[in-house]
Design goal:
376 residues; alpha/beta; seven-stranded parallel beta sheet; four-stranded mixed beta sheet; 15 helices; 11 strands; 14% strand; binds ligand V47
Length: 376
């Protein structure tokens, strides 16, 4: 393989191209190689085998119904305590009002994840979903991370499976992938010690999948984790996906380093580098051979790197969003929202075919590749 600068990658390339599965050691070799060009090409070929030139995105709205949270994750700059000026907390009716205020025709996905509020009764949550579905029947509600579901189980004094069942009956369409952080105990104890444990996070997703609900998975990287711990995180997700097939997408979340105690304690105020973002996405695409989509999350890695990531295995670039507060509280410099036309352009300029999807990954519209006129 003449195109390989790092010839030690040859057996990996052969294996991947034959549809084989990488071992943990082979995954680590991908992380450590200096031959980034080879990594990019392999991730791109893997992505193209699945999706050709297609890149997916959704017309979406993001809403955090409260930032009040008692969990105290050290990477978080979003959480506030009750009574603080910057705290907010919407009732179900106020959530409906906020969605109405931000509504733009064509939006299909409402993605909500929020703080762990200490006092709302269990009934608050299904009521919110029901009110939203009744007022906006075309809006698909993707909400509540596995960490929030565990919190609701405690409040509602019922098993997590029952929480999921009742939320699904109220109209919940899918679950986002937040709260996963890094599964490895060593890191989790330092960044999210009061949050759902790794095994429970995985169990809640297993339960959601058993109800026919699709979910996503995230990984927070670029802080105190090692490369082995990143791959271990992916490995556990790959195993669960083998079991259930219920994940739609894997989304690496680049650590945003401002205004949180983790950054202050470590003095680590650097953002992740573009190359680390791209390398991470490429390894994910190749290692997570059973995930349909790897998402480049423009809010955290910026539109420019996201556009380049379409050559590094990325098949989905999330959505238009409208307003985002978790990453921006921690220093994200991306815009608060993108227009649908802007997302289409971003994909077309990268020589790809934009596909508008909904929260279920139904294809709603396929746009022409750049420079090609749409057929009637
Ligand atoms: O759960 C919090 C993370 C998540 C920071 O499922 C941080 O489609 C980086 O889960 N730096 C919320 N990350 C966002 C999220 C998400 C985003 C996009 C798509 C999907 C999906 C899910 O953000 C939290 C937490 O893991 N987070 N603080 C920070 N300083």
């Amino acid at each position: 393989m003449k195109w390989l600068r790092d010839q030690s990658l040859a057996p990996i390339v052969e294996k991947v191209e034959a549809g084989g599965r990488l071992s943990f050691d082979e995954g680590m070799r991908l992380y450590h190689t200096r031959d980034l060009n080879a990594l990019m090409r392999l991730a791109n070929r893997t992505k193209e085998r699945l999706h050709g030139d297609r890149v997916y995105f959704v017309h979406s709205m993001r809403l955090e119904f409260t930032n009040i949270c008692y969990v105290g994750c050290t990477f978080c700059a979003f959480a506030a305590h009750k009574g603080e000026d910057r705290a907010w907390d919407y009732s179900p009716q106020e959530v409906v009002g906020e969605v109405r205020r931000r509504y733009v025709p064509g939006i299909t996905e409402l993605h909500m994840s929020s703080g762990h509020h200490p006092n709302h009764p269990w009934a608050y949550y299904p009521e919110m979903v029901r009110e939203l579905r009744a007022t906006f029947p075309d809006l698909q509600v993707k909400a509540f991370t596995a960490a929030e579901i565990e919190h609701l189980a405690r409040i509602g004094k019922r098993p997590t499976l029952e929480v999921l069942r009742e939320l699904q009956a109220a109209g919940l369409a899918a679950m986002p992938g937040g709260g996963a952080e890094i599964f490895a105990d060593r890191v989790r104890r330092q960044v999210a010690k009061n949050k759902v444990k790794a095994e429970k996070w995985l169990q809640i997703h297993r339960e959601a999948h058993s109800l026919g609900m699709h979910t996503n998975a995230t990984m927070l990287y670029g802080h105190i984790e090692t490369l082995e711990e990143r791959l271990d995180h992916m490995h556990r997700l790959r195993e669960l996906q083998d079991e259930t097939g219920g994940f739609h997408a894997f989304i690496p979340l680049a650590f945003q380093p401002l205004g949180n105690t983790l950054a202050q304690n470590l003095g680590k105020t650097d953002f992740t580098t573009g190359l680390d973002d791209l390398r991470n996405l490429a390894v994910a695409r190749i290692y997570l051979d059973n995930f349909p989509h790897i998402k480049g999350y423009w809010v955290m890695i910026g539109s420019e790197v996201t556009q380049v990531s379409l050559d590094w295995g990325v098949s989905d670039i999330d959505g238009t969003i409208q307003e985002e507060h978790i990453a921006h509280a921690a220093g994200a410099t991306s815009p608060m929202a993108l227009s649908q036309a802007g997302m289409v352009r971003m994909i077309q300029q990268a020589g790809r075919v934009p596909v508008l999807r909904d929260a279920y990954y139904h294809e709603l519209e396929v746009f022409p590749a750049a420079g090609v006129e749409a057929a009637d």
